[in-house]
């Protein structure tokens, strides 16, 4: 008596694995541009904080308009598209220092009525001498 092996299961497993792989690749394809933009924003933000730190003078007040103007200039130079300094920037005093924060979220369509939301935050401290 010869028993037949399950010969058809390999094809179904290949189909299922291909579908799962395509789903994961579609998520990666949607998220990678968002993260590339975040990494550019992170670089531009740290460059802005360094510039503010170097330009900070005792009698030169740090204003939100000055920080936003410098962030806008740096974001434009680094091609940051998703963070908007006018809406996403907060400056809070901490003693003699100032905490500069850029917090934003990016929403992208995934499938039908399902969206993915990525939340990003970057914080820096400008020391007032």
Mean pLDDT: 85
Q: Globular, elongated, flat, extended or rod-shaped: what is the shape?
A: rod-shaped
Which stretches are poorly predicted, pLDDT < 50 over at least 5 residues? Answer: none
* Protein structure class: alpha+beta
Q: Tell me the span between the first and last alpha carbons.
A: 91 Å
How large is the share of residues in beta strands? 25-35%
Radius of gyration: 24 Å
How many structural units, i.e. domains?
1
- Topology as H/E string? HHHEEE
How many strands appear in the DSSP assignment? 3
Walk across the major sheet and give the strand order.
1-2-3
Question: Describe the biggest sheet?
Answer: 3 strands, antiparallel
Structure commentary:
- The chain is of the alpha+beta class and 129 residues long.
- It has one domain.
- The chain is built from 3 helices and 3 strands, in the order αααβββ.
- A 3-stranded antiparallel β-sheet has the order 1-2-3.
Comma- or semicolon-separated keywords:
27% strand; 50% helix; 129 residues; three-stranded antiparallel sheet; alpha+beta; rod-shaped
Draw up the topology in text.
Elements: H1 9-55, H2 64-77, H3 85-88, E1 89-94, E2 97-111, E3 114-127
Could you give a short description of this structure?
The chain is built from 3 helices and 3 strands; from the N terminus they run αααβββ. With about 130 residues, the protein is of the alpha+beta class.
């Amino acid at each position: 008596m010869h028993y037949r092996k399950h010969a058809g299961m390999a094809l179904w497993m290949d189909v299922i694995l291909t579908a799962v792989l395509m789903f994961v690749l579609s998520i990666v394809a949607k998220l990678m541009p968002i993260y590339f933009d975040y990494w550019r924003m992170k670089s531009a933000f740290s460059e802005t904080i360094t510039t503010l730190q170097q330009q900070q003078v005792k009698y030169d007040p740090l204003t939100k308009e000055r920080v936003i103007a410098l962030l806008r200039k740096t974001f434009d130079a680094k091609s940051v598209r998703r963070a908007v300094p006018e809406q996403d920037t907060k400056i809070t005093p901490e003693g003699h220092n100032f905490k500069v924060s850029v917090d934003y979220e990016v929403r992208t369509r995934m499938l039908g009525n399902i969206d993915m939301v990525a939340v990003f935050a970057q914080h820096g401290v400008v020391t007032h001498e």
